[in-house]
Design a protein that fits this description.
Layout (H helix, E strand, L loop, with lengths): L36 E4 L3 H11 L3 E6 L3 E5 L7 E4 L19 E5 L2 H13 L6 E4 L3 E7 L5 E7 L18 E2 L2 H15 L10 H33 L5 H10 L7 H14 L7 H14 L9 H11 L1 H18 L1
Parallel strand pairs: 1-4, 5-8
Antiparallel strand pairs: 2-3, 3-4, 6-7, 6-9, 7-8
Helix pairs in contact: 2-3, 4-6, 4-7, 4-9, 6-7, 7-9, 8-9
């Protein structure tokens, strides 16, 4: 569909303001909400690694290497990614117009804490973190330079207000350690039967074994990715240089999905964890879902398939993970 540009300048805003029968300006229907954001990206795989692999949105539809749609909770799409006008492009230059950022609202504080843990596991840096009184928010940029706010809203009756009842939003530093530390309390309230160490001994042992096997797989994948990187771009050099590449270079970004699951297993096995056997089973299911290689798949699944085809060490490590997953079902 072609788009006819609107005229720019004061003339565009000179039309009449809609009013109701009493002469008051007519407000928008209060049920109206922003439904989705559609982003121009330079590299579809890189963008999918971030939005699906790191943040956890599910791909609902993909159109080759041109576009993809992602959502939370089965909606048709909350995020669209498109390269048709931006493949291999650069972010907008300073001094140009465009969105300052778009915002993703989480249902509660625990969910925002989970988002923070995902970002930390993937080594995605934050630009800032603020308590606005009405909400708590994390600020960052995606791989294409798009500004993002991740936030949760406090209940409306807790919003700070002036004496006349108008909102009094503020900007105070957000305590990230407290955000992560307080998250289990919120989860605990939603799981009344859970108590510390409710994860039984055999399940705990199986998860620890799964963690070890995932670390072996991650190392095999990293070694394979390093070889491919050096063939394409030259020597990595020191281990310190490799670490920086793993953290920041899009070439290695797809591996963050594996390291993120290792972090989640660590949290589940922590002595003060309120995880249950059901949480352990759910983690195993997530590992199994992630490690589904596909020649025609998307993101991680395609990269994983390619690694399995060329690297025997990856095949062996994959088999060990599968054996552990099978034992967890018996």
């Amino acid at each position: 569909m072609s788009h006819v540009p609107f005229p720019i300048g004061p003339a565009f805003f000179s039309g009449p303001v809609l009013r109701d029968d009493d002469g008051m300006e007519r407000p928008i229907d209060p049920r109206t909400e922003i439904g989705h954001v559609h982003l121009k990206v330079a590299d579809l795989e890189r963008a999918l690694t971030f939005y699906s692999g790191v943040l956890g949105f599910e791909v609902t539809q993909r159109m080759g290497n041109v576009s993809a749609f992602l959502s939370a909770g089965g909606y048709h799409h909350h995020i669209g990614l498109n390269t048709s006008e931006s493949r291999n492009g650069a972010p907008p230059a300073p001094g140009t117009t465009g969105p300052y950022h778009f915002a993703i609202r989480y249902p509660d504080r625990a969910s925002l804490a989970d988002a923070l843990r995902r970002l930390q596991a993937a080594r995605v840096p934050l630009d800032g973190a603020s308590d606005h009184g009405v909400s708590e928010a994390l600020y960052l940029h995606d791989p294409d330079g798009n500004g993002i706010e991740l936030y949760w809203d406090r209940p409306r009756d807790e919003w700070p207000r002036n004496a006349d009842g108008t909102l009094q939003m503020v900007t105070h530093p957000l305590d990230l350690e407290a955000l992560v530390r307080d998250a289990p309390t919120t989860v605990r309230a939603a799981r009344q039967p859970a108590t510390p160490s409710s994860l039984n001994g055999p399940r705990r042992t199986q998860l620890a074994e799964l963690r070890t096997r995932l670390l072996h797989l991650h190392k095999a994948l990293l070694d394979d990715a390093r070889v491919a990187y050096e063939l394409d771009r030259g020597s990595v050099g020191s281990s310190g240089n490799l670490l920086q590449l793993v953290i920041h270079d899009p070439w290695f970004a797809w591996l963050h999905s594996v390291s993120g699951l290792v972090v989640r297993i660590d949290e589940t096995l922590a002595p003060d964890s309120y995880a249950t056997d059901a949480d352990g089973v759910a983690l195993a299911e997530q590992v199994e879902k992630l490690l589904t290689a596909s020649e025609t798949g998307e993101g991680f699944q395609r990269r994983y398939y390619e690694a399995l085809q060329r690297q025997p060490a990856v095949v062996l490590a994959h088999a060990e993970v599968r054996r552990t997953l099978k034992s967890m079902k018996s």
